[in-house]
Amino acid sequence: MQVLETERLVLRRLTPEDAAFILELLNDPLFLHFVGDKGVRTREDAVEYIRHGPVASYSQHGFGLFLVSLKADGTPIGMCGLLKRAVLEDVDVGFGFLSRYGGNGYATEAAAATVSYGRRLGIRRIVAITAPDNVASGNVLRKIGLHHTQTLPLPGYKEPSLLFTPVDQVTARPDAALRPPSPIAPPPDRRATAG
After folding, report:
1. pTM value?
2. What is the dihedral of CA 116, 79, 189, 29, to 10 degrees?
3. How far is the C-alpha of 97 from the C-alpha of 109, rounded, in Å?
4. Neighbouring residues of 115: CB distance < 8 A, sequence distance ≥ 6
5. Which end of the chain is more exposed for a tag (fewer CB within 10 A), N or C?
6. What is the DSSP string of the chain?
7. Nearest Cα to 62, choosing from 11, 130, 3?
8. Domain count, the chain
9. CA nearest 79: which of 44, 31, 43, 141?
10. Segment 18-31, tens digit of pLDDT
11. How far apart are CA 155 and CA 191, in angstroms?
12. What digits encode the pLDDT tens for the residues 147-162?
């Protein structure tokens, strides 16, 4: 089922038939470095990831991660979509692409279409998180109208994540993005949030 179409891309819901691609993507060196190891080592692991992640999210929330393919030839190149993480108050836009497709503007194109789709679904505020050293993703988020507002620790990540929020909807309280606020969280890194 096609969900979105842009000038160069088609975004659709993931299915278990996409397992071979998901296995490749989740083991791409840049994905492992910036997003993390999801423990997907076999095609069967990839099927379970799809079923318990994106497919479960479609049922529970009405949205989730989509497969992103080139419109010209149908080649799958990444995934992008809306996520509802238990540790974030807001819905966030997430994306990951095979390394060989980086630098072509595909992530920006897919993320912009996804945020627009979320607004059509009635989601009023869409945020994003990224690793501090993921400069490319930070640039994508700025291009789609998000702005780095704070640095915060999130369960399951080695280092604090950068939180990006809509420029016109900056978080009023430093702890408002977290659900629930972490009692052992260090204060946000002021150097990263300044300017």
Report:
1. 0.84
2. -160
3. 12
4. 93, 126, 144, 145
5. C
6. -EEEE-SSEEEEE--GGGHHHHHHHHTSHHHHHHT------SHHHHHHHHIIIIIHHHHHHS--EEEEEETTT--EEEEEEEE--TTBSSEEEEEEE-GGGTTSSHHHHHHHHHHHHHHHTT---EEEEE-TT-HHHHHHHHHTTEEEEEEE--TT-SSPEEEEEEGGG--SSTTTTBSSPPTTPPPP-HHHH--
7. 3
8. 1
9. 31
10. 999 999 999 999 99
11. 22
12. 999 999 988 777 899 9
**Pair of tokens at residue 80:** 């992008």
Q: Which residues pair with 126 in a beta bridge?
A: 91
SS (H, E, C) 15-35: CHHHHHHHHHHHCCHHHHHHC
Cα first-last separation, the chain: 42
The CATH number of residue 17's host domain is 3.40.630.30
Domain that holds residue 180: 2-193
If we measure between CA atoms, which residue out of 154, 97, 114, 104 comes closest to residue 131?
A: 154
Could you give the C-alpha distances from 46 to 50, 62, 69, 124, 128, in angstroms and in order?
6, 21, 18, 32, 24
